Amino acid sequence: MQVSSIRAQKTSKSPRVRVMSPPQQQHQQSQSQALVISTGVPQANVDTYSQAIVPSSRARANSSANANTLQVDTSIANKKFSLGTSLKMKMFDNFVHIVENPKAEDLNQFYQDDRFTFKFNNKSFGAYIDIPNNKEYFIDYYRTIGTPYIFGLYSIDKGQGTDTMIGAVSLVLRYDNKVWQIMDLKIAKEFRGKKCLDNLITSTLPTRVMKGSAYYAISMNPNARIDVICNRMKLPKMKNRGKMHIYLVSYDNIKNILPTLETFYCSEIGFVNNGNDRLFIDNTNNRNIKLLHLHHNADYREFDFHDPQKGYAYCFTIHEDNEFIVRILKEEYNIDPSSSANVFSNDFKTDWSKFVKTFEI
Questions:
Q1: What local confidence, expressed as pLDDT, does residue 41 receive?
Q2: Is residue 320 one of the residues assigned to a domain?
Q3: Is residue 20 domain-resident?
Q4: In a shared domain, residues 56 and 190
Q5: Can you tell me the distance from the alpha carbon of 310 to that of 188, in angstroms, rounded to the nearest whole number?
Q6: Per-residue CA distances from 349 to 214, 241, 297, 355 (Å)
Q7: CATH of residue 165
Q8: Residue 102 lies in domain
Q9: pLDDT at residue number 167
Q10: pLDDT digits over 94-144, tens only?
């Protein structure tokens, strides 16, 4: 979850597919459909919620798309709205509303603008996450983790005749334990501080699929305001559960420490390559950091590699509560964390070191 801004060409790679037997597939589909019905979540591209606000004229200006961004049509004339939003349009000149499963081109432009930079490889503001192909990302990448529900927050400006995406959040119901992961939460910079975040959160998280469930989010943002925002989410018992140390090590290092990590994780360790979906970009030179992420303690996603590969850095995470393994990595291998993230959740019980993987942050 990155409140300030959470996150090409396609190359071939090994498929990463969760293999389910036909009964499992049927159960998964039935459960997803039941969630949609029981929580009142509408079908795709249906406008579901509106809340009157009056943003400033500067805030209503559209950000310019970069050269690699799809052209976005924001004209009101070319869109269909729900009855509730149509009534709002008769009453207000400016207001926001929620759309489930927004268009790929809207998401593409929105996540390209105003990227969030975070500490990585021991460098403050050292990296940012890039999504090179949003359509495949929001469809395929999320589905390597679980079943996704994607919401966009849009701002209608009748004077300008526009309906523009100003916020987004994705909720992913994980395959392995049916826990909800809150991902890629973002509000456009010019709309922050205008209660847009509250509108996005309160109209999607607690009143929809999240109510009464286990849920969590990972934030690379060190700003203490994130704790305040979590308190405003109106999700029962949502709070900071501690720091995840993030390690970035070389090929030689990972070969040396792999037996120690396998003992710590109590699991076979393989490697995942997100190189086509979710890239870590070095902010100093805008180059892709070639990463392989350690994968363990789960079978919902296949390994891309079973053994370390030359030419990559290796990324994994350990919760701060596991002080003994942090000390071993430091004292025996001279390896320190290169950055960190905070985990926020309600009080469901898990071993965060075994549960959280860096390819899902």
A1: 29
A2: yes
A3: no
A4: yes
A5: 39
A6: 9, 11, 16, 11
A7: 3.40.630
A8: 27-222
A9: 93
A10: 888 888 888 888 888 888 777 787 878 777 668 888 877 666 777 788 888
pLDDT recorded at residue 33: 26
What pLDDT does residue 212 have?
62
Give φ, ψ of 55 to 5 degrees: -75, 160
Residue 13 lies in a domain: no
Measured CA distances, 316 to 24, 253, 313, 339 (Å): 30, 12, 10, 11
| pLDDT value of position 207 | 64
- The rounded distance, in Å, linking the Cα atoms of 324 and 330 is 10
Cβ atoms within 10 Å, residue 204: 27
Q: Hey, what amino acid is at 235?
A: L
Q: Decide: helix, strand or coil at residue 111.
A: helix
Token pair of 12 as six digits:
């071939």
333: three-class secondary structure by DSSP: helix
Question: What's the pLDDT at 201?
Answer: 81
Task: Report the DSSP pairing between strands 313-319 and 239-249.
Answer: antiparallel
Residues 213 and 249 in one domain: no
b/e sequence 4-37, b meaning 16+ C-beta within 10 Å? bbbbeeeeeeeebebeeeeeeeeebeeeeeebbe
**Hunting for tokens 């993230």 — which residue is that?**
341
| CA distances (Å), origin 280, targets 120, 131, 210, 274 | 9, 9, 29, 9
- Per the DSSP assignment, residues forming a β-bridge with 345 are 216, 239
Q: Looking at the structure, tell me whether residues 256 and 214 fall in a common domain.
A: no
Q: Which residues of the chain have pLDDT under 50?
A: 1-70
What domain count does the chain have? 2
Pair 189, 279 in one domain = no
The pTM is what? 0.74
Those residues whose C-beta lies under 8 Å from the C-beta of residue 130, and which sit 6 or more positions away, are 7, 115, 278, 279, 281, 288
What is the torsional sign of CA 277, 283, 284, 285?
A: positive
What is the Cα–Cα distance from 288 to 136, expressed in whole angstroms?
Answer: 18
CA distances for 108 relative to 104, 188, 323, angstroms: 6, 13, 40
